[in-house]
Amino acid sequence: MKKILVLGTGGTIASVKTEEGFKSSLDINEILRHAGIKLHNGYEIHTKNILNIDSTLIQPEDWEIIAKEVYSGLRDYDGIVISHGTDTLAYTSSMLSFMVQNPTKPVVITGAMKPITEPGSDAVKNLRDSLLFAMEARIGGIFVVFNGKVMNGCRVSKINSVDVDAFKSINYPDIAYIDEGGQIKYNANILDSYSRPRGSLKLDTQYDPRVFVLKLIPGLDSRVIDGLLDMGYKGLILESYGTGGIPYRKRNLLEKIKSISREIPVVVTTQALYGGVDLSRYEVGMKALEAGVISAKDMTKEATVTKLMWALGHTEDVDEIKQIMHTNYADEIKNISQ
């Protein structure tokens, strides 16, 4: 009989209404009882609570805890489901993709937009779909299952703060869909190109959280970067416009970036949800390349943030970090630009 491990970390799915608003309170066994899940198609379900917090409170140290639990569980179980809050779910699923490499079994992260105790909650469907995929998946990896979709864990972003269809796969197709009858319908095109695992199962939890995301806006004063360096940040992500570029007219942010790009890695991503970065397309992008920035290419913001933290845990050499950022570990990146 196959065994599935369900890990509880809290979040909306575990919340109950209090005088101070919804608060993460239910443990994973209570969540499964509310969902009416005890035994599923003859598979054993084992549970463990590792956190019980609103995911707004998630910190990088928690990712290391979750990663170690997942790595340990993959030795003894046939699949793993992680119940998680939605606000930082995409960050957790992305970091797990780097910390737990080459799983041959499915690791599924899910949650809910409505607490399990509330009428009409999406928690039951998401839990059942996640357990189904963890039990019967034909591929291994880190996945997010939400609203009937199976998505690559390092390709998701939360795109809606209230709707049950809260997550989308960015610049990458959905892996599969789960219909109301519990049938898994795989995306045949993605199965043909799915390239994992690339080696043996590996746990690598080294990271440095000193990464700052700076969103570019008209009028931004470059002196803000001096403050970030003074605070000890070791990596900077510029959330730029369109396909990427750094302003240099009137307020010359480009000059500042050029002066620090050999000191710390400066990664350029985009404020646009889809399409990614192509610094070779416009003059402002070409100048950014000449200034020494690293393109995030088509990675999500969440994957870019966690990958840079993970890279900094291994080295502070800018050239080595660029190589790591442009290495494909879990289908989080494809080469669409320099």
What is this structure's SSE topology?
Layout: E1 3-8, E2 15-18, E3 21-24, H1 28-34, E4 44-49, H2 60-76, E5 79-83, H3 89-99, E6 100-101, E7 106-110, H4 123-136, E8 141-146, E9 149-152, E10 156-158, E11 167-169, E12 176-178, E13 184-186, H5 188-193, E14 202-203, E15 211-215, H6 223-230, E16 235-240, H7 253-260, E17 266-270, H8 283-290, E18 294-295, H9 301-312, H10 318-325
Parallel strand pairs: 1-4, 1-5, 5-7, 7-8, 15-16, 16-17, 17-18
Antiparallel strand pairs: 2-3, 6-14, 8-9, 9-12, 10-11, 12-13
Helix pairs in contact: 2-3, 3-9
Question: Key features?
Answer:
single chain, alpha/beta, Rossmann fold, 2 domains, about 20% strand, globular
Question: What does the average pLDDT come to?
Answer: 95
Which parts are unreliable, with pLDDT below 50 for 5 consecutive residues or more? Answer: none
* CATH architectural type of the largest domain: 3-Layer(aba) Sandwich
As laid out across the biggest beta sheet, the strand order is 4-1-5-7-8-9-12-13
Distance between the termini: 49 Å
Instruction: Indicate the proportion of strand residues.
Output: 15-25%
Helical content stands at 25-40%
Assign an overall shape.
Answer: globular
Query: CATH topology of the largest domain, anyone?
Result: Rossmann fold
The CATH fourth-level homologous superfamily of the largest domain: L-asparaginase, N-terminal domain
- What count of domains describes the coordinates? 2
Q: How is the main sheet built?
A: 8 strands, mixed
Q: State the order of secondary-structure elements, H for helix, E for strand.
A: EEEHEHEHEEHEEEEEEHEEHEHEHEHH
So what's the CATH class of the largest domain? Alpha Beta
The helix/strand class is alpha/beta
Radius of gyration: 20 Å
Count, helices: 10
According to DSSP, the number of beta strands is: 18
